[in-house]
Prior knowledge:
two-stranded antiparallel ribbon; alpha/beta; 174 residues
Amino acid sequence: VTSPGESGEEGRATSPEILVLGVGNILLSDEGAGVKALHELDRQYEFPAEVELMDGGTSGMQLLPWIENRSSLFILDVVKEKEAEPGAVFQYNFDDPPAFIRKKSTSHQLGLNEVLAFSLMSNTLPSRIVLFGIKPESMQTGVELTSNVQAGVQELIGLVVRELEKSGISPVKS
């Protein structure tokens, strides 16, 4: 798992085609579910060179060079779904990425939507964006996920793996 500040931008031209990006604040309980799911995904599977896993945390605009010019962007995050129970998992396939940018779907609207809008304006937006979301229960200060959200993390990981397999990528169980 890489982080935006780990290495320079040299090599961006040879970035893997698919970026799996976990976002969230791990200090606010379930708000960190996207990042924690990403690390669990990395612990459970090995990925070919076409896939890069990145802990985006709360980075915002620092993510721009990492997102640009990918064929696919998979985002793992918490989502606002009023009717759902905490820990419920969702997959949104955005066939129209510009419409996704205008729609408020995650709790990281300002940073993530701005990054995607800049990428769209510079004509470097991934052609395929998939959001894998989980409904949070608590956003209180704390580093542990609630039991409902923790239970949903494995289901979220399964959705990501299945979507990668649909793309012709075969993650291998560690």
